[in-house]
Amino acid sequence: MYTQGLLDHSEETEETPEFLAAFQKRIDQEEKIEPHDPMPRAYRKTLIRQISQHAHSEIVGMLPEGNWITRAPTLKRKAVLLAKVQDEGGHGLYLYAAAETLGISRLEMTEQLLKGEAKYSSIFNYPTLTWADIGAIGWLVDGAAIMNQIPLCRCSYGPYARAMIKICKEESFHQRQGYEVMMTLAEGSKEQRDMAQDALNRWWWPSLMMFGPPDTESSNTDQSMKWKIKRFTNDQLRQKFLDAAIPQAKRINLTIPDKNLKWNKKLNNGRGGYSHGPIDWEEFWRVVKGGGPMARDRLRARKKAWDGGKWVRDAATAYARKVKR
Ligand code: FAQ
Predict the structure, then answer these.
(1) Whose alpha carbon is nearest atom 12 of ligand 1?
(2) Protein residue with least CA distance to atom 34, ligand 1
(3) Contact 195/132 with Cβ under 8 angstroms?
(4) What pLDDT does residue 324 have?
(5) What pLDDT digit, counting tens, does each position of 107-128 carry?
(6) Which residue among 49, 218, 302 has the greatest number of ligand 1 atoms within 8 angstroms of its CB, and so is best to mutate?
(7) Tens-place pLDDT, residues 123-181
(8) Is 119 in the pocket of ligand 1 (CB under 6 A)?
(9) Which residues fall within 8 angstroms of residue 8, CB to CB, at 6 or more apart?
């Protein structure tokens, strides 16, 4: 039961110019593409790539926060964090299921992750050093995730778009709880304020990197926009995030660690927006290629969990076979 995708897509439609034009017409008319519909191989491949990376990000993303469940400062904080981490696990499962409708199995996707062949979001390769990091992740990382994911609710591929609707509702609660943790620390003792500022300093730039490389270096954006998988470019979403997060930092008297931050009235078609200092793209690519500070630990933890869960998968498969007979 873990060895194949939900649907067999081995018989592909021949990709004549007429077929490709008719497919693009459906996309342009905002029709949703569903699992049984014929689709170009490259469309399927792009979706499998993006959705599986997204699923892995949710699952690996449980690790930095899971690290603080046993050390949350109060019972209430612990219960909230526990619920949040469980939500991320659920998001991973919806997304693996959405990818399975395209003809890849969860086993294949997991193997690609464990062999280091599949990507997951760069952000989860940084360590969570203090409790304030939990606030910063909720506020900034979930904040960036929502900015990227709300447009995905309108993605042309039906199962992905529908999965994103529930995910976004939960991410929005996550963002609020993170901001509330930061607000509480920012209003607390000097040590607590310093801890919040330190977390913001460390998570700010990696959060901006989450949106992916600048548009000029993004290999997939143009085609993904044509197919309405992506509705905004990486830089457009990064800009939206900046414009939302900066007033939030000001509201709780924390300082964004960017000396070049400026209000620029020309941005956003003359409505104005914040321009930022240079992003260290070398660091981004190093982390994406597996050189992040926590990269090895993250994969080791996932491998341990996968190996530890083998008996459950074996038992479930044996039971499913018995029921089928
Ligand atoms: N990290 O051509 P583009 C979350 C890769 S969920 C690693 O611009 P694309 C919830 C990219 O794959 C966070 N790799 O690519 C949570 C491509 O390589 P490839 C995850 C990255 O796909 C919160 C290459 O660079 N969200 O946080 C990254 O058009 C708290 C060139 O890039 C999603 O996955 C990166 N940051 O745009 C959980 C959303 N950026 O594949 C727990 C869905 C780029 O050709 C706690 N994904 N790369 O070998 C997307 O929207 C897109 O895939 C982008 C990248 C925007 C991430």
Answers:
(1) 119
(2) 54
(3) yes
(4) 78
(5) 999 999 999 999 999 999 999 9
(6) 218
(7) 999 999 999 999 999 999 999 999 999 999 999 999 999 999 999 999 999 999 999 99
(8) yes
(9) 103
- CA dist 130 and 71 (Å) reads 10
Tell me which of 46, 50, 59, 175 to substitute to probe ligand 1's pocket, judged by most ligand atoms within 8 Å of the beta carbon.
Answer: 50
- Gap between the Cα atoms of 266 and 7, Å rounded: 49
Q: CA nearest 15: which of 39, 37, 31?
A: 39
**Number of Cβ within a 10 Å radius of residue 192:** 15
- Strand 273-275, strand 262-264: pairing: antiparallel
Q: Can you give the pTM of this predicted structure?
A: 0.95
The distance in angstroms from the start CA to the end CA of the chain is: 14
Please count the residues of the chain: 325
Nearest atom (ligand 1) to Cα of 230: 51
> Is 148's C-beta closer than 6 angstroms to any atom of ligand 1?
yes
Strand partners, 25: none
CB atoms within 10 A of CB 139: 30
| Closest to 126 measured CA to CA, from 46, 41, 181, 208 | 208
Do residues 73 and 131 lie in contact, with contact meaning Cβ atoms separated by under 8 Å?
yes
CA dist., res. 150 & res. 321, Å (int): 40
Q: How is the chain split among helix, strand and coil, in percent rounded to 5?
A: 65, 0, 30
Q: For the segment 200-241, what is each residue's pLDDT rounded down to a tens digit?
A: 999 999 999 999 999 999 999 999 999 999 999 999 999 999
